[in-house]
Amino acid sequence: GMRRDVRILLLGEAQVGKTSLIMALVGEEFPEEVPPRAEEIIIPADVTPEKIPTHIVDYSEAEQTDEELQEEISKANVVCMVYDVTQEATIDKIRTKWIPMVNGGIERCARIPIILVGNKSDLHTGSSMETILPIMNQFSEIETCVECSAKNLKNISELFYYAQKAVLHPTAPLYDPEEKQLRPACAQALTRIFTMSDQDNNQILSDEELNYFQVV
């Protein structure tokens, strides 16, 4: 049946920029002053691409108990796991701590979809994808990975759009570990990345765009 709303929970280590991402989305500017945790945001249906109200929920280890965290996880229908692209330890924690916390012991079909979010791309010249791909291969519930910058407002609305899409139009994982082959969805994902990279929409990637495609 149709979902009545989408509930997005942001998790990840302290200081990776969870609150800044939410505030950048809502305020359309980088917040100079950031509270430990953002208030729950409700985006009304008429301004979302899918016309479904969307709740965005922040998490702060300092402000919330484990019980409160577990309750938020149980209410979420997609989790954005945020890491800092300049801090590999924050990526590692996604694999060792956050994914097991959310989906550990849950059957594959019932796992909550996950979006990996690499924040602070403004501080990083390369891409975190090399580090991320093995994690995406290990956990089939990861829908996609987005690198973004709360500071430069880069890929912020895209990130929340992908989170909505993961709930409303879930895709099968790109790589089926049992079949040892790419899923048809992978071709679609590459097409989508191509489209994102083809910034002037002329269906041909220039050298500059090609470079972007490889970074994506």
From TrEMBL:
A GO molecular-function annotation: GTPase activity
Lineage top rank: taxon: Eukaryota
SMART domains found in the cross-reference section: RAB, RAS, RHO
Keyword hit for Chloroplast: no
InterPro entries linked: MIRO_dom, P-loop_NTPase, Small_GTP-bd, Small_GTPase, Small_GTPase_Rho
Keyword GTP-binding (UniProt): yes
Coiled-coil regions listed: none
GO biological process, one term: small GTPase-mediated signal transduction
Keyword terms of this UniProt record: GTP-binding, Nucleotide-binding
SUPFAM superfamilies: P-loop containing nucleoside triphosphate hydrolases (SSF52540)
Pfam families associated with the record: Ras
Domain Miro: 3-169
NCBIfam families: small_GTP
PANTHER family recorded: RHO FAMILY GTPASE
Name assigned to this protein: Miro domain-containing protein
